[in-house]
Structures are given as C-alpha cells and as structure tokens.
Amino acid sequence: MGYFSSLKQKIQGPFKKEDTSEEKVNPPQRNNLGEQIRLMVHSKPFESAYNSAAPFLFASLGAWPGYWLFRGMDYHVHRSHVPLAIYIRQTYYQAKVVQLLIILAGTYTVFRNNNRLRLMNTNGVVDS
What we know:
Largest sheet: none
C-alpha cells in the first residue's frame, strides 16, 4: 500500500459507512452504445456499404472546391449584370446543393445494393 492509500484509509476510517444489507441488488443493465457502434462498424455489411459509398464520399469532398473553382473562372461572363456578393451567395448555395445530391445518390446506392444493412437491429449484428 502506498502512502496516499493508507492516508485515505486513516481519514475515511471513522466516517466510512458500512453496508449492512446482506443482499445487494444488481443495478439495471444499461445499453452500451459505444460497443454497439463498434460491432456495427466492424461488421461485413457495414464494410461492403462503406466500400460502395466511398466513391460518392470522395466525389462529395471534391465537389465543393471544384464547383467554386468552376464558378470563379466563369464570373467574367456574369460580372456585367450580377454583383459579386450575389454571385458568391449563389455559388455557395449551388455548391451545397451539388454536394447534397452527390451524398443522396451515394446513400441511395448503398441502401439499394446492401439489403443486409436493414437486417441489423439494436440487439446485435447479423453474422455474415
């Protein structure tokens, strides 16, 4: 025993309450969300779903700067009749819509191709 543990026992000694009940009730079991997420992420259906969604995720990451670059190079055509602030705002919303459509297409493809993802429930993961 270390110095601090013996000091703690000396201090808590007179104030420590003893549990007199002989039968201890087990606390209710809680769902371990972290463990459930770990099991889902390490399952074969999730791996195949991620592999089918990966091209869409990478396209979504490249869509944002690519669309801004495209709109920036195209501004010289619109600068005579569209103010810069409005053009930037339009570009922002259009880039967000393009990114959202790519992600939705990827989500649709994943759920269409991987029916086993629907079979996962809260109690466990379907064995492959």
